[in-house]
Amino acid sequence: MRLHVNVDHVATVRNARGTPYPDPVLAAQLAELAGADGITAHLREDRRHIVDDDVVRLRRSVTTLLNLELAATEEMLAVATRVRPDVVTLVPERREERTTEGGLDVCGGRESIRRFVAGCAGAGVETSLFVEAEARQIEAARAVGAVQVELHTGTFCEARGVARERELERLVRAARVGVELGLRVAAGHGLNRQNVGPIARVAEITEVNIGHSVIADAVLIGIDRAVRDLAHAISAARHGAWRGAATGGRG
Ligand code: PXP
Questions:
Q1: How many domains are there within the chain?
Q2: How many angstroms separate the alpha carbon of residue 104 from the centre of ligand 1?
Q3: Is residue 249 part of a domain?
Q4: Is 9 tagged catalytic?
Q5: Rounded to the nearest whole angstrom, what is the distance from the C-alpha of residue 99 to the centroid of ligand 1?
Q6: Which atom, in ligand 1's list, is nearest to the CA of 89?
Q7: Per-residue pLDDT tens over the stretch 76-119
Q8: Is 143 exposed, middle or buried (0-12, 13-18, 19+ CB in 10 A)?
């Protein structure tokens, strides 16, 4: 399973004071050195954290894989075709939200998403769609030409007990639908060292995108250790050493 580290919140800290530091590009380099398999950043319409210059510098610097999260707008399609990240992940975006809420409505926005995906493909950029764990959204993602879906894990992360088990089953079913349709399946949102285990054990899910928790850990223990600990939690779960929330994980 690939671990992609999202460096948005390094830029959040920087922008809080308008200083040039801490630099999300330097954080990305350190995350790669610590073992991250890819770097993710979200250029929001309001530029609240990552700004255009960060994206250009990330493209020059990232040696693993650059995943740019964008809204499906004309402005962002122009960014995608100019910067040419390896992958664009289309996400829904509302100005007033604190973070991305809910998945993209691919069924409702088929034509505009299809145009965006085709525009990216023309520039050699793959497209992933951030969706809820619903078969109809995954089928629509396939129909508009995406190569990957990223399943929204926010509800799983917030749920407890039986509700969490049910949510995990929903994610597993959705991941199987994706693989059966020939899509790659990623997952993300709200994941951390303690709750990533059950997701890491889903064979169909081959990538996780993790941001807030790893940058929060990095503030206290350094980014090198934060990324290594997370990578360890993922591989221990994937390969059977993780013993589950009931026997140690905080969940
Ligand atoms: N995946 C997607 C598509 C996202 O929009 C985000 C949040 O930017 C994440 C993953 C990472 O979520 P978190 O910061 O909660 O780890």
A1: 1
A2: 13
A3: no
A4: no
A5: 8
A6: 3
A7: 999 999 999 999 999 998 766 666 678 999 999 999 999 999 99
A8: middle
The 3-class secondary structure across the chain, one letter per residue, is: CEEEEECHHHHHHHHHHCCCCCCHHHHHHHHHHCCCCEEEEECCCCCCCCCHHHHHHHHHHCCCCEEEEECCCHHHHHHHHHHCCCEEEECCCCCCCCCCCCCCCCCCCHHHHHHHHHHHHHCCCEEEEEECCCHHHHHHHHHCCCCEEEEECHHHHHCCHHHHHHHHHHHHHHHHHHHHCCCEEEEECCCCCCCCHHHHCCCCEEEEEECHHHHHHHHHHCHHHHHHHHHHHHHHHHCCCCCCHHHCCCC
> Is residue 245 a part of any domain in this protein?
no
Mutation choice for ligand 1 from 6, 148, 158, CB with most ligand atoms inside 8 A: 6
Is the whole model's pTM more than 0.85, yes or no? yes
For residue 226, tell me if it sits in a domain: yes
Atom of ligand 1 nearest to the CA of 210: 16
240 CA to centre of ligand 1 in angstroms: 26
Whether 69 is catalytic is yes
Which pLDDT tens digit goes with each residue over 42-60?
999 999 999 999 999 999 9
Count CB neighbours of 46 within 10 A.
8
Residue 110's domain comprises 2-238
pLDDT reported for residue 96: 66
pLDDT at 101: 72
CATH number at residue 123: 3.20.20.70
